[in-house]
Amino acid sequence: MPEVYNWQLGRKMLYPYEERHPRWQFAFVFNTNRCIGCQTCSMACKSTWTFSKGQEYMWWNNVESKPYGGYPQFWDVKLLRMLDDVHQRANVEPSWDVAKRDGKERPYVTFEGLTIFEAARKRYGPEGHQPALGYLPTDAEWRAPNIYEDTSTGYKGGAFGLSTTGESLPEHKTWFFHLQRICNHCTYPGCLAACPRKAIYKRPEDGIVLIDQERCRGYKMCVEGCPYKKSMFRSTTRVSEKCVACYPRIEGRDPLSDGVPMETRCMTACVGKIRLQGLVRIAEDGSWAEDRYNPLYYLIKVDRVALPLYPQFGTEPNGFYIPPRWVPRPYLRQMFGPGVDEAIEKYVAPSRELLAVLQLFRTTQKIIFRYEIREGAKVYETTINGKPWAMYNDTIIGYDKAGREVVRVTVEEPVYERPAQHPNSI
User: Fold this and answer.
1) CATH number for the domain including 142?
2) pLDDT tens, 97-138?
3) Is residue 378 in a domain?
């Protein structure tokens, strides 16, 4: 099996195919601190792509309440347990080596455990080993996309069920948070590795992962091999389908696009302003080409406030999350890796530049390729975690792929008072 380099793990790993990379990569950042779980994004995707017969239980975009929710049910818990069993049998400790951290090459230190591709080689069945460790969910696990919605963890309270010690930030004793999920369009997709028909491919122009439905024969190997369970089988056509990243909009073919890439439907529908989607340039060696003022590059590579979902799976997902600040850290480290503490610390007391970049979330349907900040006056001062912190009313400007300005916002939202036109009739 060939070796490929995974920058999220900080090392080379085994993968069924030789390393090959697109010119640009579809990527996104979700800010879990802002999500209200309204499912507007889910319905935008559903009404655009999965409204036909046989797609009733397909939710290419879903929002699940952690720690108990999941679609399919317990998708991550089951795979984590399978990985743990392989680690125990192989006598391997799935740890992160904090001593091995090297900027862009190893931003999250080095993972010493087994990925789903490496673990599969230590787990043999009648047909040999799988290309990727995985499992097939039951029909019952697909039938409740909102199971355990808004269900929090429990705790023992005092009289009337009230807490005897109260609540405090950044961690509550009772907690849950919303996890927004679409296909991560991984650099090393588990679905692609598992497909025996080679019906799944990664587009060279933007890194979007698609299924060739003429080649697909409905073996469900992609459903089994995707650790995030974002490849789904359609019973009426007997082939698999998945999120297509609204590629006509990414290609600039939307009537309102002016020929430049636009965000996906789930991104543009978000009322909580938690989503920022874009394209990042990929160098010949597969690394992200330095692009200091691309907002995604800044959030992920420079400030490192946005982290990949379950990087230990080894697929190098291109979906990133700003972790929720109130959730117990051990749970978050399992989900987003060892960069959680640094990311939350930076988000709670954001730098002047980070605070400005956060204003770009959900401000325009056109993808922002570059931003510029124009400094403004100081408007607020306080102390955060014992350190002085100040807010400046800076202006941030976003530009599309053609270099045209598409958005201009300030850190402090302006207030406009409209003059009364008619007296109140009541």
Assistant:
1) 3.30.70.20
2) 877 666 667 788 899 999 999 999 987 766 677 899 999 999
3) no
CA–CA gap between residue 262 and residue 366 (Å, rounded): 4
* Domain annotation covers residue 339: yes
Which residue matches tokens 């979330």? 361
**Is it the case that residue 54 has pLDDT exceeding 80?**
yes
Structure tokens at 378: 């100081």
In terms of C-beta density within 10 A (0-12 exposed, 13-18 middle, 19 or more buried), how is residue 345 classed?
middle
Assigned domain for 409 exists: no
pLDDT tens track for 343-376:
999 999 999 999 999 999 999 999 999 999 999 9
Q: In whole angstroms, give the CA distance from residue 418 to residue 412.
A: 19
Q: 191 φ, ψ to 5°?
A: -65, -40
What three-state secondary structure class fits 16? coil
Number of domains within the chain:
1
Which residue range forms the structural domain that includes residue 298?
A: 3-155+169-347
Percent of the chain with pLDDT over 90: 85
Q: Is residue 117 part of a domain?
A: yes
The secondary structure of residue 226, as a DSSP letter, is -
Asked whether 156 and 190 are in contact (CB, 8 A), the reply is no
d(CA 187, CA 318): 7
**How confident is the model over 269-286, as pLDDT tens digits?**
999 999 999 999 999 999
Structure tokens, 130: 């799988």
| CA–CA separation, 360 and 398 (whole Å) | 8
Residue 159, pLDDT > 70, answer no
Report the alpha-carbon distance of residue 342 to residue 415 in Å, rounded: 34
Beta strand ranges found along 289-415 (DSSP E) = 307-308, 319-322, 370-374, 378-384, 387-392, 395-399, 405-410
